[in-house]
Amino acid sequence: MSFKTDILQIIKDESRVVFDKQIEGRFLSDTLGRLVGKADALVFAASTEEVSALLKYADANKISVTPRGAGTNLVGSTVPQNGGIIIDFSKMNKILEFDADTFTATVESGILLKDFQAFVESKGFFYPPDPGEKSASIGGNIATNAGGMRAVKYGVTRDYVRGLEVVLADGSVTWVGSKNVKDASGLSLKNLIIGSEGTLAVITKCILKIIPKPEYSKSVLVPFADLESGISTVQKILFANANPTAVEFVERKVVELGEKFTGIKYPHPEAAAYLLLTFDGKQNEVKENLEIIKNVVLQNGALDFVIPESPERLEEIWKVRGCLVKAVEATSEQEPVDLVVPIDKVAEFIEFVNKTQKKVGMQMVAFGHAGDGNVHLCVVRGSRSEEEWKTELQKNMECVYSKAYELGGLTSGEHGIGLSKRHYFLKETKNTNLQMMNAIKTSLDPHHILNNKISYVL
Amino acid sequence: MSFKTDILQIIKDESRVVFDKQIEGRFLSDTLGRLVGKADALVFAASTEEVSALLKYADANKISVTPRGAGTNLVGSTVPQNGGIIIDFSKMNKILEFDADTFTATVESGILLKDFQAFVESKGFFYPPDPGEKSASIGGNIATNAGGMRAVKYGVTRDYVRGLEVVLADGSVTWVGSKNVKDASGLSLKNLIIGSEGTLAVITKCILKIIPKPEYSKSVLVPFADLESGISTVQKILFANANPTAVEFVERKVVELGEKFTGIKYPHPEAAAYLLLTFDGKQNEVKENLEIIKNVVLQNGALDFVIPESPERLEEIWKVRGCLVKAVEATSEQEPVDLVVPIDKVAEFIEFVNKTQKKVGMQMVAFGHAGDGNVHLCVVRGSRSEEEWKTELQKNMECVYSKAYELGGLTSGEHGIGLSKRHYFLKETKNTNLQMMNAIKTSLDPHHILNNKISYVL
Question: How much is the ipTM here?
């Protein structure tokens, strides 16, 4: 039997299978669309059973499999490297159970973050992980251990995954984790799979932890005359016992791109940098925390402490922060970088980036999650030719990643490694750790059919 | 060369090595002392280099290795199964770095929890994990992913481990994790090793997350006329957005054992059960939360809402809660059980336990962490002969664990599996998951020298 016949025997619905040249380019890439792979079949899976049957077949025939959520990743994690089958989860997007009694909801992995957030909030609950891209799938969020703005107070996706239904490379279906809060019962397979970028197993269902919805939330914009005072104030904010939800930083020159893009103006254009803080909880608690932080920042050189006067103004402030990548992209192609450094090294790292961009003449727009050391850079192509861009980008990025590692940092805080960051990750990661990762990979996926040559997989 | 000569060539200090029959019994057991293993050498390691050299030697010669923290475990995790070498970490107990700027402290794995807690609190910081046994080592806490009272608000040991220096079976030394807050850079080896009970690697150094010390803390005792109303109120407490630090439950009949043991009296002896709650944070916040919870519990059938009138009385209340295991042990040998069930199943499970103990005539004293479904049982031997105790205990425990799994529960919430719970864990765990765990074990420790036949290791 041919490959096509085999696939159609497993997926008994032709409308959910596309072969070869019929596969649209966007399914062979990530959200940036620059890296494009090849595949022999694209299957829109409808059930765990189908995924299991596909993997069993693929494993027996050593066919590569690329799981795909909403394809919003920025690092080429959904770019098929060896042909084979793309399993798309967009049709597996149901909420299977809402269980207020255990503070959990169980969903299929293809559900979009925004749909899940809206659902739980309609029930008076809250799903804290809040990555910028709300159209990502929950399965994708788990595969990259996505972070987001609220990580300072609430942690990252890992902290909200109670259990996962997964399909192993050989087609076995099992659950790792459970609705239980505590677990000291054998190896934490769940935690191993979270953040593994689809290299160990395919996630089909997710039990997610939800919490009661905070009653009240307030954001504040804090301008500083220089970046250094802004960043060094972050630690004082974190130490003040005021439990901030988000601690974002953005340089004035970056805000200007956002202002131009949106037509919105930030106050204090004379500032060199801003901190953008959010606090949530009970009203009195938030008000008390705001007072504490007001004192902290003003004692540390803040030019002002601006609480947006209306919900509309608040939305405007966040709109500028939210549009930065798009604002850069409106001017040029850009390479998104998602480094993380220890929180006391953010200022030194940003300074290094600022010096480097001057030295090498490549614009690197920096902003990000100061409260957890997660620095986003948009590295701007400008008018470079394809060849120049490729060569110069790699050279400059090697230098930037190397500095981050020298400061104790890592390649990725929340986007994952995928294809795009693999070169830097393999270069900077200790050989022992790479060997451990690859030994584990081989132990669970002996024929290396799952997302091979992605991330750490040699 | 002989084994002894080899070991003394690695550890060039005879005062830190004990051989064969010279090894004291307590080093061959856990804190209960019932299961006793055999070993050829006990080494008090002084450095990572020594641990590395020992493992390299052991791996080359296929000699079993049993890492040992303070030996306070309750499940036989430190009972050597195949002779070989015990590596004791009690001399590797230094604080290596206190880094307020990144909210971390780096320690050797043999440091005791109580010493570490005292150290960070003296610096104005706080290490939230709070297992009952304060004389446990931090390395042991990490190996079992220890929990404790404060887990409801603060999470468990896993949530406070930023990085680990580990020695692999072949003697390689590496770091997994780092000081970074976010990490989406390859497989989470750190999270795999946490809770692995010494089966994958030996932990030598730990970077721990610390947080600013809460300003204020208040506990409250809430008596209920029946267990069911007490337990069903727990979820209402958790839903009330009042962020409790601890939510403990204890039945009146269990309190009576503690009262007898300590001479301290709880109020409301007519109650059938008590909840013991703690709140911490800023003073106003705690007071507001107490008001909220007072309303919640009184609306749900609480007999009273007793805030201990003095620090001494508070200490008394916690003393009774803290002594329960010892109170039981004063009357008879007991088997400690550390089951976990989803939080909405605690009442049903306790009811089942109460019925079972009546039916089979074996006393099972239940108390525990209601806020996270972690139920502790002390199963009492009474006047049974060794043989009767062994046979009846296993039969009754099979029944209890089976019920817990039926309710979606797990063998252990915080003690780990070790030797004592292995029978039940292997019986209840899905074969696919056991296979995954054992495949990973073999990938990292091909000769199975580390804690073999412990926990999940087949």
Answer: 0.97
C-alpha to C-alpha distance for B293 and A73, rounded to whole angstroms: 43
Sole residue written with tokens 């008590």: B274
Q: Which of B321, B310, B313 is nearest to B277 (CA)?
A: B321
| H-state helical runs in B48-137 | 48-60, 113-122
Q: Please give, rounded to a whole number of angstroms, the shortest distance from the CA of B383 to a CA of chain A.
A: 31
Q: Give yes or no for a contact between A300 and A233, defined as CB atoms under 8 angstroms apart.
A: yes
B1 SS3 class: coil
Whole-angstrom Cα distance, residue B249 to residue B27? 34
Distance CA A324, CA A252 (A): 12
Answer yes or no: are the C-beta atoms of B400 and B339 closer than 8 Å: yes
Chain A window 195-224: which residues touch B at a Cβ cutoff of 8 Å? 195-196, 199-200, 212-215
d(Cα A249, Cα A238) in Å, to the nearest integer? 14
**CA quadruple A270, A276, A279, A283: dihedral, nearest 10:** 40
User: pLDDT tens per residue, chain B (458 residues)?
Assistant: 699 999 999 999 999 999 999 999 999 999 999 999 999 999 999 999 999 999 999 999 999 999 999 999 999 999 999 999 999 999 999 999 999 999 999 999 999 999 999 999 999 999 999 998 999 999 999 999 999 899 999 999 999 999 999 999 999 999 999 999 999 999 999 999 999 999 999 999 999 999 999 999 999 999 999 988 998 899 899 989 899 999 999 999 899 999 999 999 999 999 999 999 999 999 999 999 999 999 999 999 999 999 998 999 999 999 999 899 889 989 899 999 999 999 999 989 999 999 999 999 999 988 889 899 999 999 999 999 999 999 999 999 999 999 999 999 999 999 999 999 999 999 999 999 999 999 999 999 999 999 999 999 99
CA distances from A262 to A163, A225, A313, A321 (A): 41, 24, 13, 10
Q: Chain B: residue nearest A242 by CA? A: B282
- Spatial neighbors of B431 by CB under 8 A, at least 6 apart, are none
Give the residues across from A167 on adjacent strands.
A173, A202
Task: Check CB contact of B175 with chain A, cutoff 8 Å.
Answer: yes
Domains of chain B, each with CATH number or no CATH: 3-88 (3.30.43.10), 95-212 (3.30.465.10), 216-322 (3.30.70.2190), 332-428 (3.30.70.2740)
Task: Express each pLDDT in A120-173 by its tens digit.
Answer: 999 999 999 999 899 999 999 999 999 989 999 999 999 999 999 999 999 999
| Alpha-carbon span B83 to B149, nearest angstrom | 36
Q: Would you say B144 and B133 are in contact if contact means Cβ atoms under 8 Å apart?
A: no
Confidence class of residue A228 from pLDDT cuts 50, 70 and 90? confident
Calculate how close chain A gets to B220, using CA atoms only, in Å. 21
Cβ pairs bridging A and B (under 8 Å): 268
Q: Which residues 6+ apart lie within 8 Å of A75 measured at CB?
A: A30, A338, A412, A415, A416, A417, A418, A419, A420, A421
Query: Which of A151, A182, A199 shows the shortest C-beta gap to B182?
Result: A151
pLDDT at residue A227, as a whole number: 86
Residue A6 scores a pLDDT above 90: yes
Identify which of B346, B334, B374 has the alpha carbon closest to the alpha carbon of residue B131: B374
Give the closest-approach CA distance of A192 to chain B in angstroms: 6
